[in-house]
Amino acid sequence: MFPYVAAIGILGDSGLPWPSQAAVLAVHCLVMVAPAVLLALARLVSKRAVHRPLRRIEGWVGDDARENTAWLIALAGFVLLSNSTAYDRITALLSSG
């Protein structure tokens, strides 16, 4: 979702007419969805060969889901904070002292 939201922000500031913005956004969505579609097709074609490794990966991801989610939320919070005026005030306070 983050790349999509970033693309919307960049397109909004680009100054392009809305039909061009819609076309660029459609291409962006295709590029973002293409790897998942290709991997799904590859999975269907090579079902037997990749079944066991995918089950192992599924177990690893399932075991570490809470920690991974916590890291993603922390990263998103840092990105939001780094673009805020509170962050600017904190860094100004730290650099002056």
Large-scale geometry: flat
Instruction: Give helix % range.
Output: over 70%
Structural class: mainly alpha
Mean pLDDT: 86
The biggest sheet, with number of strands, parallel, antiparallel or mixed sense and barrel status, is: none
The tally of strands reads: 0
Distance between the termini: 39 Å
Low-confidence stretches: none
Rg from Cα: 20 Å
The helix tally amounts to 5
Provide the succession of SSEs: HHHHH
Beta fraction:
under 5%
Question: How is the topology of this model organized?
Answer:
Blueprint: H1 2-14, H2 18-45, H3 47-63, H4 65-82, H5 85-96
Short précis:
This protein has 97 residues and is mostly helical.
List keywords for this structure.
single chain, about 100 residues, mainly alpha
General description of the model:
The protein has helices spanning 2-14, 18-45, 47-63, 65-82, 85-96. The chain has 97 residues and is mainly alpha-helical. The protein is flat, with a radius of gyration of 20 Å.
